[in-house]
Design goal:
The chain has 15 helices and nine strands. The strands form two sheets. Strands 5-6-7-8-9 form a five-stranded antiparallel sheet. Strands 1-2-3-4 form a four-stranded antiparallel sheet.
Length: 374
């Protein structure tokens, strides 16, 4: 997302040698103990088999599960993070995917989403940055490779990545033939992480690099070729967060709809038409801003969303400000995870704090023009 830092000596023995045990703190906003409590709130909802649902009794999906695992590692909950990655390896299917929706032990939606499958690569690279455990990377590598091979097979002619393959009678079935800008932007980050891992284990994946170059071109040059989801804030900032759009183009992109989504003092809207701010989206925008050097506004937004914090260190999903109520009245693991990762990005505490900035991935793949009419 591919050259990572030289780690041959650091992890070749397979021993656990954490680079740091420090937990992030953002002065004036969150202490390290606050962040530990937020990580503990995720552990409290984790299943014995390692699954991390959105809330107790709710679904587990691979993307949010991996994000939570990353936050657990940052928050000092190493054993819980390892259980979470064990769950990923145990539940991956032969085509490289995970079901879209698992509730307990029951698969309620067996479709295979590309961005959910791809994100394991980001989690494994993040784990390497924080822990420098070569054995962990080598154990996870086959799953990462299978997942990203699936993603590359799903790339559409214009360069975007089809968002879903349905399953029929227990086997992969029809594809949608449609790409989502948010999902494809996340996949771009995952491909870069995968390329960094491939370099680390010395198994080059040139087809991933080609796919990443085609995808970057599609995101930067042809955003209108994706499904129109412009009402959602994620479609606004994810091309920046995922790394496909950076530099001056990123600042222009974020300025374009700032007033549509940002609610001063509260955070950002999930949808531009609704008076509802959400914590996870706000923290993702914080990380996008930090990644392009807009630290001042990132810190303001991070402080603004702390009204969602609960007494146990967890975070409510969102807040409807005309009614002055949390809605829905639940504390979600993915919101807590986004807070922990944003705190790390802002403080630069762990070696994984770079994960959204992306400099540890190495150079961007060269843009490649697909069947897009250019």
């Amino acid at each position: 997302m591919p050259t990572g830092p030289d780690g041959a000596a650091a992890g070749s023995s397979g021993t656990s040698t954490a680079v740091t045990d420090a937990v992030p703190a953002v002065p004036g906003v969150l202490t390290a103990d606050d962040v530990r409590r937020t990580a503990a709130s995720i552990v409290a909802m984790q299943h014995p088999d390692g699954a991390i649902p959105w809330t107790p009794g709710d679904k587990t999906d691979a993307w949010n599960h991996v994000e939570a695992a990353m936050a657990l590692l940052v928050g000092g909950e190493v054993a819980a993070a390892e259980r979470a990655y064990d769950w990923c390896l145990a539940h991956q299917r032969h085509d490289g995917t995970w079901p879209v929706r698992i509730v307990g032990d029951v698969v309620e939606d067996d479709g295979g989403e590309t961005n959910m499958s791809a994100y394991l690569a980001v989690g494994v690279w993040h784990h390497w940055l924080v822990r420098r455990e070569r054995a962990f990377v080598e154990r996870c590598w086959p799953a990462v490779r299978a997942a990203l091979d699936f993603v590359v097979r799903m790339q559409l002619p214009f360069g975007g990545v089809d968002w879903l393959q349905e399953w029929v009678d227990g086997a992969p079935g029809p594809v949608r033939g449609e790409a989502l800008l948010t999902g494809s932007s996340s996949i771009y980050q995952s491909l870069r992480a995968g390329l960094a891992l491939a370099d680390l284990v010395d198994e080059p994946q040139p087809e991933w690099e080609l796919a990443a170059g085609r995808l970057r071109h599609a995101i930067r040059a042809h955003p209108d070729a994706f499904l129109d989801k412009a009402t959602f804030s994620m479609d606004w900032y994810y091309p920046v967060l995922g790394g496909a759009v950076r530099g001056e183009a990123a600042h222009v992109m974020l300025a374009r709809r700032w007033d549509d989504f940002v609610v001063p003092g509260l955070g950002i809207r999930c949808v531009d038409t609704n008076p509802w701010v959400t914590g996870a989206e706000t923290c993702e925008l914080v990380m996008a801003l930090d990644a392009v050097g807009d630290r001042a506004r990132a810190l303001v937004l991070f402080a603004d969303m702390q009204h969602l914090r609960a007494d146990d260190g967890g975070y409510f999903t969102g807040y409807v400000w005309p009614d002055e109520v949390f809605w829905p009245h639940e504390r979600t693991t993915y919101t807590a995870a986004a807070v922990v990762l944003a705190a790390d990005a802002l403080s630069g505490t762990t070696p994984g704090a770079d994960i959204m900035h992306g400099s540890s991935f190495g150079p961007h793949p060269a843009e490649v023009v697909g069947d897009c009419g250019c």
